[in-house]
Amino acid sequence: MLKIGLTGGIASGKSTVCALFERYQVPIIDADLIARQLVEPDEEAYSEIIQRFGQAILQKDKTIHRKKLRQLIFSDPTAKQDLENILHPKIRQQLILKSQQQCASYIILAIPLLIESKMYDLVDRIVVIDINPDLQLSRLQRRDDSSSEQAQIMINSQCSQEQRLARADDIINNNSEPVALNNQVEQLHKKYIKLSNGCQHANSHGQ
Fold it and tell me: Which of these, 3, 5, 11, 43, lies nearest to 141 by C-alpha position?
């Protein structure tokens, strides 16, 4: 089974691309979703986060105030590193586990920090969503209702698009109309089916 790592900068359109792949019944394993589950009150990571960041990041119902935590880590590189040290090993473990539970020609592991967390050993190919920096900035401002300064800090806290593209096997351009995005996903879907068939063929000969 072929494992495709999908990544891109913040607000580059990862959710939209995942939804397009899902139309082809492609299993999607989403690292963001895993991260959200890991910080639920009954999870081990929750206790570790409270220990490190204190009760101030909790909401009235004792759940973690995600926006507050996000603002904190984007303004403090040490805090960001500490949070990643808590979450990344657990996310990695879940990605491996969930990958093993799938049965399909290929699956997509949507990992926003694929490059930063060096998780490329979990996938066979990497597809990067490429987006114009100005468009990315305006999308992020709209999405999070933040100032351009805040949005730029968040973008700068991730690796550069050049670093992502240097690792890419495939690139999805998300600068134009939805129909163009549809076409690119369709082409990649066909390509991955073909590649996965090639893998299976090679494996059957190797047995």
Answer: 11
